[in-house]
Structures are given as structure tokens and as C-alpha cells.
Amino acid sequence: MNAVSDSDISISDYEETEAGVSRSKAKGKGKATDKRKKDKAKRKPKDQAYTWEANFTRSWETVQEDEGGSLQGVMNDWMTRGRRKRLLEPQNAIRRTIIRHMVLLIDLSSSMMDRDMRPTRFAVTLQYAREFVLEWFDQNPLGQMAVVGMRAGVGERICDMSGNPQDVLKSISDRHKLEPTGEPSLQNSIEMARNSMNHLPTHSSREILIIFGSLTTCDPGNIHDTLDECVKHRVRISIVALAAEMKICRDLCDKTGGQFGVAMNEGHFKDLLFDLVPPPAQRALARSSGAGAGSGSSTNPAADLMMMGFPTRLPDTSPPSLCACHSELKSKGFLCPRCLSKICDVPTDCDICGLMIVSSPHLARSYHHLFPVKPYAPVASFDNIATSASCHACSRPFPTTPSQNVADGMSAIGRYRCPDCNTDFCSDCDVFVHDVIHCCPGCGK
Asked: Where is the composition biased (Low complexity) (predicted)?
């Protein structure tokens, strides 16, 4: 590429002397080099059309070694800071809806092929959607989820309402069937999701989560009429936008009580999704004055008592029989306690008698949202430490030297104390207690 072609030298240059020819070639080479540099400078902004190429940062320059020349301490501090961010939120015992029904709307329009998120918005969305489904079912064992795609101006049903996370993951695992095309339609997709939840009882939540990457929507009618219907039927809409904020998206979230956010990068996108994993706070509905004396202060009478059934689990060696949900021959399954019909998975609603069927472990695990474990307080200095030199849960010894760079809400000596039993835990056990077991090992609360 650095060789000089004959076209860079004029014909008159050959009539000069040998020295003149050399000077002419050098002059022509300099002009050609300057021209290529100018052309390269002009093409440079065009080559960096994608946002992820322009936002290149030298992250390795922010890493500082400790006194021993190791990076392990710095990496542990970063991981601890990210894990405790969610634990620092207020853990108040409020009334929440533990029986949730959610419809996940995924934008499958052509705008999802943009490369501002690596490698594309579509690939990142599918990856985070799988992680969200697993975490959502882990934290909400009594919930059910359906998936709807938005492409070619219509809403496409991808997965029906199911309480089995494997069914939902299987429906979004084949990306060739979900290839983005056309324009999205918010109205058609929301109407499809709302109609699929009209039969649900009032004690369960009706939620719609939209991952929206387009700046346009192709609607057949007035979308504000759809918004009024969602408010009337108490459907909560939350939107995670990948492009920019739109007025209609903000109105859909504000008027229905949902959350709205615009993802700035991949990490922020994941944070916005996982903020919707905990159950939402239940909105109080005033009881009518004619309901009885002394009942004016009571709220939401439909959730006072509800009927549930605990099924009988069939062993794998039982003779095959047809299930009521899929009409397939299966050996294992559950029996409805009311009509004795066979179902595949729980939690679900019986297709024969309509009874809500749950298992007792799922019901017990759902209570941690109503009575969460109190946040552990970080121990600031060695003056306030207890007699134990190791973690109360895992018996790992605490560090003996304080950390230099400590963020807000973190302990410089790696100790976090329960406010009830005053026992100290390490950062890993702190996260494990609040995220997995939901019970303090020291006091049992």
C-alpha cells in the first residue's frame, strides 16, 4: 500500500534529470501520502458509526495493585460492591402480591439488529431474558409467565402462560424462529397480553414487561384506548427501552403503576430487568361502605381468603395416563385434590375445576417477600468487632488489615452484623442469606 504508482507522477517529471526525477518522485509520494491521510481522516467518523466502537475505555488503567502486588483484593472489592448494591435497599415489610402472572413482550422488529450493544440488541436481549426468567421463577415460585413477540406489525404468541420455567426457556431458546423483521406494534401486543389475563382472579397480579428497542410503533387504532382498558383491568405495564424515551411508553408505565427505564449499556439493561424480579407492592382498594360495620378501614376484600389445593405427587413408576393440560400419556405428574384430574406441573390452575394448585414448599418460599431478612449493618472499625475472628456461617477468617478503597455501605474489615443477634458474617454469606436462604443462621429470623 505504501508503493508509489506511476499515476502519482506527472509526465513532465520524466524529462528532468536523475536528481530531478528522484525529487519529483519524492514530491509525488509526499502528496499521495498527505492525500491518503486526509481521506483516512474523512473516513474515520464513518467507520465509527456504532456506539460501542466509539465508547472505548481503558478499564485496565483503573485497576490498582495492593501492597503485596496482587489484584485479587481489588477484584473482591468490586464483586462485593456490586452484590451489596441491591441489599442496601430498604427491606420494609409491605403488602406484596406473591401470586404473579406476567406476560413478557419482546421486540422482534428490525431495530433489534442494531449493534450499539454487542453483538446486537437481539442477542443481548435473548441472553438477559433467559437469565431474567430463571431468576424470576426462583424468586416467585407461585408465578406464571407467558412470552409474546412484536414483529411485522402484529403480536405473535411464543409461549402460553406456564408455571414451569423450562417451558418458557425452551420457547425463547431457538433464535432462528425469533428472527427480527418489520415494525413492532405496541397496541396489538398489549391487547393480546391483556386478553390472555382477563380471566385471572383479583388476588393475583397482572403484569406486562416490554423490552422495546424501536422508536416507532405500528398501531391499527388509538393506543390510548388500550391504555384506558389496562388501567380499568388493573394491568401493570413496565417498559425497558433500548433506544430512547417515548411519550407513549412513559404514559403506559406512569398511568398503570409500572416502571420505565432506558438502558444506557449492557450492565444497566440487566439492572433494569432484574429490578422487576421482586413482587410489586399491592395497591390498596377501599372497600365499599355497605360491606359491613367496622370494615371501612379494610382494603382489598378479595384477597382476605382464597382457595388453594395441595396436589398429590404421582411416582415415576405409576402407570401412564392422560394429563388434563396437554392430553399426553405420562407416568409422573400431580393429582388435583378436588376433581382428581392429572396435571403435569405446579403451580397452575386446574383445567377441569379451575382450582389453583400449588405445592407447600413453593408457598413457604414465597413468604420471604412479605417478611424479608433485615439488612446486615457493615462494621466500620476493629473497635466494634465481636470476639469471633471468623464468619459465623462459613467459619472463614476475617481479614486482619482494613481495606483502603471502601464504597458507601461496605465494611472496611469485611464484617457485616445482624441487628438482632449481633453475629458477624462475611460478604459472601451476607449475600447468600438475603438471596437464597432468606433466614439468618444466627437468630433464625
From this structure: 1-12
